Structure formats: structure tokens, C-alpha cells
């Protein structure tokens, strides 16, 4: 996930068992998107049995070991990367957290230790204790030198995305203090929940000295080691038997890159893959009549947020009356009914629902008369208003089109600017649009607000909010953090620039004997270290 300095805070992939080489056209043909359909491929086999507490809803029994698991995720084509600081598509996330490990990872709204066992403050340093006996895929042992190297990359030009972590910690000056201790200088005041800050998807620990990420040089400590990689097509991973948290269930994990949701669903229906992540609501429902397939729904507390971020660097977006008009004028229920097809609920303009310290504020009531009055006060009637969108999440583009239609009914000259994934996060082009359709997963609040502030065209520029966010980030007690987070969120709900119009289920399609998906924070990016086949 991306992080950025909060405003107002001072900074300083025919598939057969023996041949996985295939082109994108061959894959689409195999799953029925092309002119031919492939014969069904048998599911993976199992041998000895283990029990897995993370068995998904709809699958019952014990997960066996052995066999190949094949999963399809949305990808970004040739821009996909093995670098954990690289491309942000779903398949990139699934790949990186299968090969690498973080220091901490969220589970049940709490950061749990992974490669780190704990953190403390000593003077001006954050002291990180590392787990003993962790082995890289090449047989070498994890030491503090690897973490220091990872921090240096994160603070350097290899990290192309802005990061709020660099506001809190001087990663470039991190140093080893023995083989299993790392000291990181603190910038300014200590943040109160450093484990949460370090539980970043992008902060995956790489082996010291890694300068390129190729099939032979990409070495992590995760449950799977890299075997083959073809950007925009497939990744083949092998079980790492020396994994510190216990070996994975399957011998081999294959990740297919399929941007088209229909292709992902057809891949499961034709038994080319065992699991397809993040599929459209209507498409998922069409799969319910297929024997041997389940439609799986994420828990309510892991629903993702669908948002429109108003650009406060534009003339209209600067005005509080204009932002309030849009929050009052939007038809949230129509968007939920049309885009989510019953698999969601209206949002209350706050991200992070289900997270610790989340403020469960009421959903604004629609008032089009008041909205038009406010638009007149802001001098916005008849003004051009362009909404940026990209095909990153299910329904994102269609939601922008419906929102534009609603705004035209209110008197704005609203249009949609659909861009490519390559353009999506470009700062200059982001700044040229008046609003952006944007998704945020069910992450912890520091990550959610780090993400929402990741790019200036999306950020909430408000001094009082910045001060409240600063207090929330630096509070050291549970009660203090709760009070501070509630204050910051109330300001965002009252006059913020993010319209969180809905919270949606994340639907997946899976073979009914496939289990072991672990949903840490966002079900769009599950951890795959325990997947396998159920007896």
C-alpha cells in the first residue's frame, strides 16, 4: 500500500501439468474467451493432511498437502515487476507477499510480528528485534544487514511512491546493532504505534545486495520461492520447505495475470484455475449454477471503500461549500444498487470501516435542493468538472460515469476521463482532473489515511485535520489514540474531500475443494501461504 506525508504534519500463467509456457492469447482461448475452449484440467492432488484454521467459508474438511494451486488475479501487463517496491496491481501484491515477508502484518485489526518480534524506543532510535533462524530461499540466514539494506532501498530512488514512513523514520540512516537488532533514527516526535506503521505491504524484506529482480536474483524468506515469471502472463512459485512459519500445503503455486474479470471467472468455470480474486458482482452471480464452484464473500468488516476524491488544488475543490454540495447531492443508494448489485452498503465518507478506532458516523442524507443552493453559492453551476477513473477495481469506471450523470442533474458540466493503469498514479495528470474515482481496502487507519494523503491532488488540505491526524499518529496509549482518531475522522466527515459513497463486498470464485485463503486486511490481496485442497 502507498503511504504519504499527511497534510498539516511537519516533515522534514492449453495449461497442462507439465507445460506452463503459454501466451496471453492461448490462455484466453483456453478459458473460453477466445475462439476455442480447453478441456478441463484436473485439480491438484493431496497426500498427507493438515488442519488449517483459515479455511474459507463454503469449504469444509481438512486441507491436504501436495499438488498445484492455480489462482487468477488482475494484472497490469508488461509493467508487472518482481520488485516489492514495483507495480501496484493485485497480482503484484499476491506475488510479493508470497515470496517476501514484512516485519509486521495486520491480522484481526492488530499488527502481528512476522520477521520482527518486537519494537521499542531507545533515545532517538526505534529498535527492531528480528526473528532468529529465518532462512532465505538460497539457504542464507536473515540478519540485520538485510533489513538495513531494505530500509535503504525504501528511502532511495528505488521507491517511486511517496511514503509517510520516511516522515517518521530516517531509514537511510538505519544501522545494524548486532546480527538481529536494527536501529532506526526517529524523525521528530515518536509515533505511538510503530508496529502499525511498519506493517506496510511495500516494506517487504529483501536480501542485502540485491540490485536487480530477475527469476534467479529474486530471493525472499516467504512461503514460496520464485521458479518462473512472465510479466502480464504468469508466475510459478515452489514451496519453500524451510519457511520459518511452517511449509506451505501445496508443492506449487501458479499466479495468472488476467486483467479482465470475465476471463478470471471463466478460468475457474473451465477448471484452468482453482480460484479467481475480485470478480464483478453480476459476473459472479452467473457462476453460481456451475457445479463444483463457489462464490465467496468477504466478511463485512473487510469491505472495501469506493470513493471519489475531490482535488483541492482545483478552484472548485478548494471550497468547503462545493465539497459539501457533492456529499449532499450524490445518490449513494443508486450507486450501491447499480454498481454493487446488493453486495454492499452506502458509505459515510470515512475510510477504514472495520479498523480499530474507526468512527461509525452516520451516512449523510441526500438533499438535492440544499446541494444546488451550495453549488450556486460556490459559483459552480454550469462549471466543468472532470472525474478521473481507471480500470483498477470492479465497478470503478462505471461508478464514475454514474456519478457524473448525477452531477449533471445538479447543474455541473460533469465528464469522465478514463485513463490507463500506467497513467493512473501519475502526479501531473492526477492534478489536472477535478476528482478521482479511487478504492481503498479495509486497512488500518494509519494506512488508510496514509493512502488517502499519498498524492497531493487527492489529499485533504486542512490545518485542523492535519493537527488532529498528527495527534492520532503520535498518541502512545490506546485510549488516547481512540480519542484522537475520532476527532480527526469527525473533521473528515464534516468537511473532507473524500466522498466514500459505498462499501462493497469482495467476491471471489473458487473450486469448492479449494481452501486456505487468509484475508489479513484486504481480501483483494490475500495471503496464500496456507492454500490447498480440501478432502
From TrEMBL:
<dbReference type="Pfam" id="PF00496">
    <property type="entry name" value="SBP_bac_5"/>
</dbReference>
<feature type="domain" description="Solute-binding protein family 5">
    <location>
        <begin position="110"/>
        <end position="425"/>
    </location>
</feature>
<comment type="similarity">
    <text>Belongs to the bacterial solute-binding protein 5 family.</text>
</comment>
<dbReference type="InterPro" id="IPR000914">
    <property type="entry name" value="SBP_5_dom"/>
</dbReference>
<keyword id="KW-0813">Transport</keyword>
<keyword id="KW-0732">Signal</keyword>
<protein>
    <submittedName>
        <fullName>ABC transporter substrate-binding protein</fullName>
    </submittedName>
</protein>
<dbReference type="InterPro" id="IPR039424">
    <property type="entry name" value="SBP_5"/>
</dbReference>
